[in-house]
Amino acid sequence: MALFSFTKTHQSSECAGRTGIFQTPHGAIETPVFMPVGTQATVKSLDPAEVHDIGFGIILSNTYHLYLRPGQEIVRQAGGLHSFMNWPGA
Description:
By secondary structure, the chain is α+β, with helices and mostly antiparallel strands. The chain contains four helices and three strands, in the order βββαααα. It folds into two domains: 1-33, no CATH class; 34-90, no CATH class. β2 and β3 form a beta hairpin.
């Protein structure tokens, strides 16, 4: 079984638009989706539980910024990005 998959649930007959479900090891995300941005593994002014309680199932993080600071070793020692962020979603 693939770690990630995408299943198309609807295709527009008028354009290339479609909806679907993106399956990850951490959960399923319906697309299209709005993702709050947590560039350095945090959404400013909200803790992860608040972001999740609002109804977001995914946060966009920038791995290049995280590579620069705090660094991959610190994220790895924390148990990966989800553990480092204390994020329950995808």
